[in-house]
């Protein structure tokens, strides 16, 4: 039942849109954005530092719940065969990687984050879970894909060509030492030959809008031909967007929290333009509108997320 709630269309997005756009108190969210404050433009390293501090504050891992609903939204992660590889971008404490590993005992997850401390916590949480052979199927590496891109070993074109010709990959070259897998591969001048899936789950919204096209292009580059990118993120007029104050705006539909972390709220057209612009094929794209109730105060919360599946052409 818990998973089903994420699928239900509790309300129509167009109705919410009309309500928001006709509410004078929410007008600040609709206005064009013109930045006259240089301090609103942050350097890339400041963005990463803000998220590192965020994860340190929530190092217990209790802040994020395990996202079990993802297996319902993306059943391809369960139905795929042996040796399929997933790249989880911005893995945090492993709340996305863990249900994937639970749902498919053969799948292999490569997880990256900009914080090495966060990766250590993710390794601890997943190692403590009752997941079959997790030690050999969960590999982490530190990376900010929006600034430095992904390491070459993740999607080497030479090995991708070999994979297509021989129908095999480079997994036999992966060492068992979990935290050093990525670097041992690089040092040995080898690679994993690309991934079958990329998951972008509440990650792209944390990237400054001007860096999004390059970030998505990086995801495209490490996918095998025919591979899929699975997307879920904040949608336009989500409750959290409407709670921001006008002085927290740092761009059109883009906001910054008091701790320095940022969040963008997507409409379907923006997502479509971003992904198709780098070569992806759209498979699914829709709003997921869920009405949840705060058990403590009884208030209803209208949540809007964008669900999408995109494929790299064969």
Automatic annotation (TrEMBL):
<comment type="function">
    <text>S-adenosyl-L-methionine-dependent methyltransferase.</text>
</comment>
<keyword id="KW-0489">Methyltransferase</keyword>
<dbReference type="InterPro" id="IPR026113">
    <property type="entry name" value="METTL2/6/8-like"/>
</dbReference>
<dbReference type="GO" id="GO:0032259">
    <property type="term" value="P:methylation"/>
</dbReference>
<protein>
    <recommendedName>
        <fullName>tRNA N(3)-methylcytidine methyltransferase</fullName>
        <ecNumber>2.1.1.-</ecNumber>
    </recommendedName>
</protein>
<keyword id="KW-0808">Transferase</keyword>
<dbReference type="Pfam" id="PF13489">
    <property type="entry name" value="Methyltransf_23"/>
</dbReference>
<dbReference type="InterPro" id="IPR029063">
    <property type="entry name" value="SAM-dependent_MTases_sf"/>
</dbReference>
<dbReference type="GO" id="GO:0008757">
    <property type="term" value="F:S-adenosylmethionine-dependent methyltransferase activity"/>
</dbReference>
<dbReference type="GO" id="GO:0008173">
    <property type="term" value="F:RNA methyltransferase activity"/>
</dbReference>
<comment type="similarity">
    <text>Belongs to the methyltransferase superfamily. METL family.</text>
</comment>
């Amino acid at each position: 039942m818990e998973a089903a709630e994420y699928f239900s269309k509790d309300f129509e997005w167009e109705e919410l849109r009309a309500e928001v756009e006709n509410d004078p108190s929410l007008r600040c969210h609709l206005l064009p954005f013109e930045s006259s404050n240089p301090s609103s433009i942050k350097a890339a390293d400041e963005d990463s530092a803000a998220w590192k501090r965020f994860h340190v504050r929530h190092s217990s891992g209790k802040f994020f719940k395990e996202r079990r609903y993802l297996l319902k939204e993306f059943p391809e992660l369960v139905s795929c065969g042996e040796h399929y590889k997933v790249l989880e971008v911005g893995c945090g404490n492993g709340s996305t990687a863990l249900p994937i590993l639970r749902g498919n005992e053969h799948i292999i997850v490569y997880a990256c984050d900009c914080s090495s401390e966060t990766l250590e916590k993710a390794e601890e949480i997943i190692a403590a879970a009752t997941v079959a052979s997790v030690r050999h199927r969960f590999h982490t590496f530190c990376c900010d894909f929006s600034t430095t891109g992904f390491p070459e070993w993740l999607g080497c074109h030479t090995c991708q060509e070999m994979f297509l010709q021989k129908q095999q990959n480079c997994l036999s070259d992966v060492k068992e030492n979990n935290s050093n897998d990525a670097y041992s591969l690089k040092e040995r001048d080898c690679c994993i030959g690309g991934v079958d899936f990329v998951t972008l789950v509440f990650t792209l919204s944390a990237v400054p809008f001007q860096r999004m096209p390059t970030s998505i292009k990086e995801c495209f580059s490490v996918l095998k031909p025919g591979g899929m990118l699975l997307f879920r993120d904040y949608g336009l007029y989500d409750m959290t967007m409407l709670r921001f104050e006008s002085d927290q705006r740092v761009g059109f539909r883009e906001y910054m929290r008091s701790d320095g972390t940022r969040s963008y709220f997507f409409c379907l057209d923006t997502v479509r333009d971003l992904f198709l612009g780098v070569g992806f094929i759209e498979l699914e794209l829709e709003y997921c509108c869920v009405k949840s109730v705060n058990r403590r105060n009884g208030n209803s919360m209208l949540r809007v997320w964008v669900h999408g599946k995109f494929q790299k052409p064969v």
